[in-house]
Each structure stands twice: as C-alpha cells, then as structure tokens.
Recover the amino acids of this structure.
C-alpha cells in the first residue's frame, strides 16, 4: 500500500472518469446509500465531472498509484431557498480507512466551502457507519436528524439516514472560547 505522502489530492478531471468508475464499482453498495445519485452509473459520473468543470460543485479526489482511493464533494443548490447550505459527501476505499485520508479531505473541503460562502454544512450517512460519524463529529459536525427508512438498498431493504451538520460560525466561536 502506498504511503500517505504519495497520495495526490486534486480536483477531478474528465480524464479521471475511468479511475472514478473503477473506484465507485469497488465500493461496498451499502457505503453508497447516502448519495442522492448512484455514482456507479455512467450518466451520474459524467454529470458530476461536468458540474466540477463548470464550477457548480467543489470536489477532490485522492489518487494513489494512478487509482482513485477517496473522493469528497461539497455542493449547494444556488437556486434553492437554502443556497448557504452545502452538502458534503465523502467516500474512502475500505483499504484506506483509518489512515487520516478522510480527515485530510474533509478538512480541505470544509475550508474550501466556507471560503466559497457556505453558512452551514451537512453530511448524511447510515447510522451504522460509526467511523464516518466519528470523523465528522471530530471535525465539528453534530447530529441534527435521523430520517427513518429514508433510503432503499438495491435488495429493497430500508435504511435510516443520519444527518449531521456544521455551523462554521458557531464552531469558530466554540474553538475561540474553549480551544480545539
């Protein structure tokens, strides 16, 4: 396995489509349930890369040995009633979990989203994804909602969806008052 210093973190490009498709296909299906769309579908992957290219989404990929090992995206619907809310979506390949890569990506995308005007960040995951929940909580996100039976797996099984959020101003005030 590649050393963490040998991982390139950068914005994805259209030329990354084959590596992103391999990454998505290799992810456990349960790990994809929190996504609004199935990134294993070529049309969805194409739309993601087009949105990245047009500046409609902020995303990063982590690449090791020419293969994508993690992705993160932060997106906001600029035409909604909540353009200040950015949704964060993080995926780390199973073999790369627990090595600090998710934290590295999350820290960077939160910084980028706040710089771009995010007033609130949200993240969604199934409640059994304890490692992901811990990571987001360590980065200042707090539980906000539990949506019962909100997502349906390919086999028809319903799963709950946990929603965590981060208020950047409140988190900054807490850090200032109490330290990290």
């Amino acid at each position: 396995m590649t050393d963490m210093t040998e991982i390139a973190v950068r914005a994805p490009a259209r030329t990354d489509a084959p590596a992103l498709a391999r990454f998505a296909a290799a992810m456990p299906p349960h790990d994809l349930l929190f996504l609004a769309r199935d990134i294993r579908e070529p049309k969805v992957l194409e739309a993601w890369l087009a949105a990245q290219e047009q500046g409609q989404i902020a995303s990063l990929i982590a690449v090791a040995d020419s293969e994508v090992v993690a992705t993160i995206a932060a997106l906001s619907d600029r035409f909604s009633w909540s353009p200040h809310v950015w949704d964060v979506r993080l995926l780390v390949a199973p073999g790369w979990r627990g090595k600090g890569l998710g934290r590295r990506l999350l820290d960077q995308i939160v910084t980028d989203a706040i710089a771009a005007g995010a007033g609130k960040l949200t993240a969604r995951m199934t409640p059994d994804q304890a490692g992901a929940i811990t990571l987001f909580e360590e980065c200042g996100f707090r539980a906000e909602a539990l949506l019962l039976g909100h997502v349906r797996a390919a086999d028809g099984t319903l799963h709950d969806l946990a929603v965590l959020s981060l208020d950047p101003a409140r988190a900054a005030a807490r850090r200032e008052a109490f330290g990290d």
